[in-house]
Design brief:
The chain is an alpha+beta fold. It folds into two domains: 46 residues; 148 residues, Heat Shock Protein 90, CATH 3.30.565.10. The protein is 42% helix and 23% strand. Strands 2-4-5-7-6 form a five-stranded mixed sheet. Strands 1-3 form a two-stranded antiparallel ribbon. Strand 6 and strand 7 form a beta hairpin. Helix 3 crosses helix 4 and helix 4 runs antiparallel to helix 6. The longest helix has 23 residues. The relative contact order is 0.13.
């Protein structure tokens, strides 16, 4: 599967290279984000084998601007304006000058997983909802909090939180995404934890070394 997917992505990459010659202004605006997403997919294929047998690459933490990374993950998760369900609103409470020390690719993957889960949870209610991202400090750590107004996690998902292949939060889910997100957080010296979940929504916290 990995081999076949990489071949497909290589074909898409060739087409993207041709698009770079286009003078269309819309192509000019969209193409850089398209290529960045494509590069991420290719990189993920190159660095991933079967879960549990292959190790993630060692984190490479550095000082990064947080808000652009959050917004990029939100767009990929379909939460940005015009990118997904207009009934689901992103509330980004991250200061424009906020910086954290983290591996940007690992943190992006953690955020993307949490935001997709939040959007899917809200969508099951058939009601408008919010996904809010905020930043604070506590006990010598930087805390990135993600809160949604979904219906809360089912009992099975709570009981098997961060355990792959033991049932995810949605019907037919594997729970693999949260397991990988927690592993990435630990690798960087931090922690991903569930703060609360219930009928009014779910809150996760990503604790990063200060």
């Amino acid at each position: 599967m990995n081999h076949d997917l990489r071949n497909i992505l290589a074909s898409v990459q060739l087409m993207a290279d041709r698009l770079e010659m286009s003078s269309d202004p819309l192509v000019g605006r969209v193409l850089p984000k398209f290529i960045a997403s494509l590069d991420r997919a290719i990189s993920l294929c190159q660095n991933t084998l079967d879960f549990g047998r292959a190790e993630e690459r060692a984190p490479e933490p550095r000082r990064i601007a947080l808000k652009p990374l959050v917004e990029e993950a939100a767009e990929a998760a379909g939460l940005a304006d015009g990118a997904g369900d207009p009934a689901i609103r992103l509330i980004c409470e991250i200061p424009a000058d906020a910086e954290v020390t983290a591996d940007p690719e690992h943190l992006y993957r953690i955020l993307l997983n949490l935001m997709r889960n939040a959007a899917e949870a809200i969508a099951t209610t058939s009601r408008p909802g919010d996904v809010a991202v905020s930043l604070t400090e506590a006990d010598g750590a930087t805390v990135l909090r993600l809160r949604d107004t979904g219906p809360g996690m089912p009992a099975r998902a709570r009981e098997n939180l961060f355990r792959p292949f033991h049932g995810g939060a949605r019907q037919g889910g594997t729970g693999l995404g949260l397991a990988i997100a927690a592993e990435l957080a630990r690798a960087g010296g931090g922690q991903l934890e569930l703060v609360e979940t219930g009928p009014s929504g779910t809150t996760f916290e990503i604790r990063l070394p200060d």
